[in-house]
Structures are given as C-alpha cells and as structure tokens.
Amino acid sequence: MKKRMLGTLALSLSMLVACGGGDTPNPEPRPDPKPPTPITDFSGLKTLKPGEQATIRTKLKVNVVFVGYRQTAPGQIATARQVDTRDFNQTLPKAYEAIARIPSSYGRTEPTGNAFDYQYNYVFADQGFEDSFFDYLGKNGKAAPVTVYQKLYNCQNDVDPATGDPTCKTPAGNINRVVDSNFEIDARKTEDWLANNVGRVGVKPGEYTVFMVNWFDRPDFKLHSYTRDDAADTDTGSPFGKKASRRLIAWGGSVNAAGPAQRVWFYDLSANPDVWTNGYDVTNADVDGYDVADYRMPPIWDYGSRKASLGYGRKVSPDLALVTRYVALNLLFTPSPIYRAALTPPLSPEEIGLDVHVEQGKGAVTQSKVYNTDLAQKRIAVLQPFAKFSTTVKETPLDGSLADVYRCFFPDPEKPEDLCSPNYADAAGEKLFQYGVKELRQEYAGTPANKYLLPIYLFNDQTDSQAGLLGIAYDDGETGTQAFVYSFLTPSLNAAGYGFTDTSVHEVGHHLSLSHPHDGYDSEQNISYGPSGDFLYANVGDESASIMSYNDLSREFGQFNLDSQYRYLSAAYLNNTNAILELTRRAAKEGAVLGAATAADGLFAQAQTSYDALNYLDAATKAHAGYRAVLDAAKTAGVNVQAYKWYENLSGLSVGKGKPAYSASFRPQKGAVIFPEENTFQRSKRLGQ
C-alpha cells in the first residue's frame, strides 16, 4: 500500500512539472522566426518566362461534316463516292506549329508562338439535314447559261487552237456526264445557311467546320455552281463576280457582324466543275506548264471512272482528306504568316502611318479614281486593332531617276544579263529597294519614335511596262523582315477592271503578316507548297472570304484572317513582354517592374483562357494590356527598350550574303521558302473571262 502511494505521488509531481507547475524554471524563450525575404525577382511568374520564346499551345476542335456522302460500312470495300474516315485518320495532322515563313526562309526557323493540337469530329449529316439543305439549294438558285469552262469540260481537248474556246459538236468520250445546264446559287448565302444550322448536326456555332457536300447522288440533283455576283472592284466597279472564271465550288470564312463568329467552309465536288483548279480538264496531266503532273479533283461523277480521265480509278474519300489538311487547316483555319506580326520587336508600334507614295505617270488615270485613301485605311486597321492609324499621300511624277529604277524592277527578259543591279542577288529590284530605303530614312528623321511608317508605293504607269503584276510586299533581303509594299497599275490592268485600293490593301495584309489562301506551310512535314504539282488543288483555298485571295471576290479581311492575325498578335505580345522582362533583369531593375510583371502574368493567363475558347480578339486585347503594363513599368524604371529598325541594319544585298530559300514556282519544297507573288497559271486565272 505504501509503495502504491509513493508511486502515485511521483506521478503527480511529474505531471506538475510537465504542466509547468512547481519551482521548475521556465525554459529560455525561442527567438521569433526570421521574416521571409521579399521576392524581388521574376521567379514567381507562371505564364511569363523572361528571355524565353513562349508558345501558346491550344487544343483545337475541327468538325468535318459530310452532307450527301455515305460512310463505308464496317468490313465493306469503299466505293468511289463513299467516305471512309480511316482515310482522314491517316492523312490529317495531329498538331501544327506556325512559323514566320519569309524570316524562316533565311535559314533559321522562327516559330510565331502559336501551336495547335487538333481534335477531329466526323459527322455524317442525317436525312433530315440533307433534305433541308438541298431543298434550300434547289429553291434559292437561278437558271443560267452554261459557262465557257463548263463547255470546256464537255469538249476537253477539242478547242480552237487560236482562241482556246471549246468547239466540239459531240462531247468528249472520256467524261461521265455532259454539263448541259447551270443552276447558280449564291455562295455567301449558302455559307450562312450552313453556319446557322450547324447545331442540327451537333456542332457548336463558332467552331471550325468543313462541310463536304455532294448533291449528285440524289434525285433532286441539279448541275450547279456557286457565285458571288455582287463582287466588284472598289475603284472601277468592274463586276468580277459575274465572270465565268469566278464560278465556285467552295466558300466560307465570311465575317458575321450580327452573331457568333462564322468559321465555316464548304467544299462541293458536285458543283461546276471547278475553274480555279482546272477541275474541268480531266484529260491533261500538266495544266500549269511546269512539265509535272498536277494533282486536282475532278467533278464527283468522274470518280471511279473506267475511262481515260483524271477520275480513272479515283476514290473521293482520300481526296477529301487531302483538301481538309492542305487547304482547310493549313491555308484557312491555322495558317503560318509570311512575316512577323510584331513588326518592330521587342516593341509593337502604337501608331502606324500608311506612308503612301503615288508615282504618277503622265497621262495615266488620275489618282482619285483609283485609290480610296480613307477606305483603304479602314480596311487595314482591323489587323492592328491597338494601334492608331493615319495616312499621308504624296504624289510625284513617274519620270527621271524614279522611272529608271522602276523600269529595272521589270527587266527585259530577252537581255542575258541584269543591267540594273549586277552586283546584287536581287537582280531586278535592288535599285528600287535602295531608292525606297533612302526615302524612308529621310522620313523617319522627323517621325516620333513610337510611330511605324508603312511605306506603300503606288506606281501608276501610263504604259504597259509589264505583263500584269498587281503588287508585291517586299522584305529587307537580309533577315526576312517586311520592308516595302509595291502596287502596280498599267492601262491594260486598269482596263481589266483594277484600281489601287484593293491591291494595296491585299499587299499591306502581307506586310502585316497574312499569307495567300493558296500557298502555305505544313509544319509536321516541314514543306512549303502552293498550287502546282502534287498540290495544284490548293488553289481552291482562294474560294474563301478574304482579300488575300486572288479571285477578286472579297474586299475585306475575312474571319479566318482575323482569327489568325489576333492569334499572331497574342503570341507577339507575350514574347515581346518576355524580352522586355529579360532586358529589365539585365539592367537589374526587376524590383521596379515586379508589380507590373505580376499583374501582366495574370492578364496573360486570362488571355490563354480566351484563346482556348476561340475568343481571339479578347485574347489579343488582354495580351496587349499585359505587354503595355510591363513596357510602361520598364520605361519608367529606365530600362532601354529599343524597337528593331530594319532600315538601319542593312549591310547590303550582295551575292551570297543572307541568301534566302526562294522558289520560282509553287511546287512543294522542304522547309520555308519565299514563293513568287503569282505565276503565269495564276495570272491567267485572274485575268480570265
């Protein structure tokens, strides 16, 4: 009992000690923890990466909707006009990474910072949708005469050797159907109907969608073509939309100002046959004159033919997959630009001056009749929505030394040697280029530092000094940076219906980054291609709503153009900001800019969310705000941020110095190349009847 009581007492004492009771001294107090060191560098940024080339990567859903096509049943052999989605799975790319094509042609690939991981959704429209759509077509067209190109299809090689006009009394024996009627349907209204009804096939409005159309296999089929009858030149009013050469089999990408963005493009092989890709010629292998077979698509009824024609043994499914990849994706939906959208990295200009030089030939049509200053600026301004635009116009006579350097741009092809620039790689244009550089340097001497001068030269020639080139957007010849915009007008071109307004807007579109919808780049295969050889069918990309097209059916930039430009700008602002932050770090000014950088980091995260949701203008708006916050803070902190000025960094264009990869044709080539503005084949289409 005693031992038990002693044990209890000992336990009680130990508890008192544990509780701090008794006479036990208090332990020494611990020092307060050291306060955290304030973060004064950029290590906490999540979206911004100072000094790095960033990429905005997004998952992009692409819908391919088949209307009038039947799917090959499991285990069955695909017939000529059936669709097997395995052809698409084997052909379509998994991803795409955009590059600045002309800068990349100088030997160092320049990603724009835009990358896509594609997600494909194949839909076969149900009977109800097909009945509604083809009923709409049948009720909303008009009977029209058979066009000369439809007659050429009927006659094939039986043509007048002097004029090329069809002369046959009996249709060619190698075609499968005579085109003896023509039902014309408005292409824009057809696009609108499809865009307004995408929900009926389970597609969300505003998503990228290709409609593959085949009316032929229905009892209500009509031989038809699509038109843009109201399309006319801005200056001359020339009705390009009424030309037979502008009859279409495809259309899409129009801007819908009243509702969701319209990202629809349709392709109808049961129409026309196609003019723009020589689909009406099913006999001759080479149609562009480069002595290589040109791949293009015949009309739907010639697929699987046993006759000696373009359709012999062909199946439509693989061809539709080719058009989806090399036209819809690479040229329309997610193309690579030809130039850097940033213009003057690591800064982007807040003011852009359209610096227009009208070189007026004596006796040429007056400037006011062929150039609408205000309208041109209004159309161009949408490509740089955060810059303030202005225009100055200076008219000088096209004579004297200016006339000499202009003539050198179009040298006589019969002269064996270049007499204008014998010591330069740019044999034809060097003198004109140097003339422009001199003028530009003089003009910049009195221009505010934050203003970008976009030099536009309009050569209004009183003579037919050249074969029909309308314009070109020139680079600096050393780094692939955009330099001058040239537009040309001759009496013959003016008589053909052309002025300067539409041409100059097209060429400025190039300068600000946009490419043609008929030549482009495939990033997975690392090839550049245009409408020639294996890719002649790519010319159908022109059958879309874009002033960058060559068919003269659009006066403004379309939805696909705007999407692309705003994506390019979003990435440009991101990478400009990364560069400015790196300059700030090197100047040991991180602490002064950290608050702005943190706020911008959040804005760029929001921009990514908008970008993923296809709200590209909103993404660019947030990216621009983040860029401006960092730039303003850096300038306030005294960081030296300088815009790249190509005209101050020229060391000459001598042979072998900075020579780019240039192609004289549109035939496919590895890597990034500079393609010609147009070739003889395209010019014949543009000037066709």
Summarize the structure.
It comes from Deinococcus arenicola. The protein has 689 residues and is of the alpha/beta class.
Percent of residues in beta strands?
15-25%
Q: What value does the Rg take, in angstroms? A: 31 Å
Q: Count the helices. How many?
A: 17
Largest sheet features: 6 strands, mixed
Question: N-to-C terminal Cα separation, in Å?
Answer: 125 Å
Shape: globular
Which strands sit side by side, in order, in the main sheet? 4-5-1-8-11-10
Helix content: 25-40%
**Structural class computed from helices and strand pairing:** alpha/beta
pLDDT < 50 stretches: 1-25
Task: Say how many strands there are.
Answer: 19
Mean pLDDT: 92
Helix and strand topology:
Elements (H helix, E strand, L loop, with lengths): L1 H17 L37 E12 L2 E2 L10 E2 L1 H7 L3 E5 L1 H4 L6 E14 L2 H13 L1 E4 L3 H8 L26 E5 H10 L11 E6 L10 E4 L22 E3 L11 E5 L47 H18 L17 E10 L6 H4 L2 H9 L6 E10 L2 H9 L21 H15 L6 E10 L10 E5 L6 E8 L1 H5 L5 H11 L8 E3 L4 E3 L29 H28 L3 H23 L3 H21 L32 E2 L9 H7 L3
Parallel strand pairs: 1-5, 1-8, 2-3, 7-9, 8-11, 12-13, 12-14, 14-16
Antiparallel strand pairs: 4-5, 6-7, 10-11, 15-16, 17-18, 18-19
Organism: Deinococcus arenicola
Protein name: Peptidase M43 pregnancy-associated plasma-A domain-containing protein
Keywords: Signal
